[in-house]
């Protein structure tokens, strides 16, 4: 069941879209302002985000930009603003598609299906040829971006995955926080280096097992390393 996050401040429209998506079999969450929507988008895993542009607390363009800094969740913008500048700005800040209000619900549902179908095809193509990176019982399948510890599949966000991949491809190499930040978030990222510590903690919570030593070791004052 695909999970869809609706970030829309028009409550009646949000309820209507929510109801229609549920009727189609999707699992949905609704947030009525940009800040709450951003928090949900970053802290939970969704298959698609439906995002209004004109939101209280934080506008949709800023929400899209911040989501795209940390995750690759597909975004469809829903808005009454139909100028070329608005459409280009939304797409440039990470949106995958754009639908203008008022819209027919059938068109929105078709766009959601098309986006999910495209992702499914891309995932299917990636499964044909797999390059693996291994450390003890931890395995990364690079093409389909699957991480396993033993037989258990570990669900990671895009940033968590990229961070783990870099560390596993550089066994015994101490990676500084700045180096990890530039490789995972990009050289022009405005994210502070302490975000690396936050994501290392997320990773440890997912890949480590209670009572066992963490696979990712901290090198005080420098950064992190996975040692053989």
From TrEMBL:
The record's listing under PROSITE patterns reads: OMPR_PHOB, RESPONSE_REGULATORY
Family matches, as SMART domains: REC (SM00448), Trans_reg_C (SM00862)
Which positions bear 4-aspartylphosphate? 52
Q: Which UniProt keywords apply?
A: DNA-binding, Phosphoprotein, Transcription, Transcription regulation, Two-component regulatory system
Q: Boundaries of each Response regulatory domain copy? A: 3-116
Q: Where is the OmpR/PhoB-type domain?
A: 130-228
Biological process, per Gene Ontology? regulation of DNA-templated transcription
Pfam families assigned to the protein according to its UniProt record, in alphabetical order: Response_reg, Trans_reg_C
Q: Which residues bind DNA?
A: 130-228
Q: Which GO terms describe its cellular component?
A: cytosol; protein-DNA complex
Report the domain of life of the source organism: Bacteria
Gene Ontology MF terms in the entry:
phosphorelay response regulator activity; transcription cis-regulatory region binding
PANTHER family reported for this sequence: REGULATOR OF RPOS
Q: What is this protein called?
A: DNA-binding response regulator
């Amino acid at each position: 069941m695909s999970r869809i996050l609706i970030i829309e401040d028009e409550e009646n429209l949000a309820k209507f879209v929510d109801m229609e998506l549920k009727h189609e079999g999707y699992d949905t969450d609704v947030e009525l302002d940009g800040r709450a929507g951003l928090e949900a988008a970053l802290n939970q895993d969704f298959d698609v985000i439906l995002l209004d542009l004109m939101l209280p607390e934080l506008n949709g363009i800023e929400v899209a930009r911040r989501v795209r800094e940390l995750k690759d969740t597909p975004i469809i913008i829903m808005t009454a603003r139909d100028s070329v500048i608005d459409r280009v700005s939304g797409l440039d800040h990470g949106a995958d598609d754009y639908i203008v209000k008022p819209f027919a619900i059938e068109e929105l549902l078709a766009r959601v299906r098309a986006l999910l179908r495209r992702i499914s095809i891309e995932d299917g193509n990636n499964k044909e040829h797999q390059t693996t990176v291994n450390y003890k019982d931890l395995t990364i399948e690079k093409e389909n971006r699957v991480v396993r510890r033993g037989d258990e599949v570990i669900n990671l966000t895009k940033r968590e995955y990229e961070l783990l991949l870099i560390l596993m491809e550089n066994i015994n190499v101490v990676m500084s926080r700045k180096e990890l930040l530039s490789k995972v978030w990009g050289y022009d990222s405005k994210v502070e280096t302490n975000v690396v510590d936050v994501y290392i903690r997320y990773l440890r919570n997912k890949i480590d097992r209670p009572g066992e030593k963490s696979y990712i070791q901290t090198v005080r004052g420098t950064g992190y390393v996975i040692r053989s």
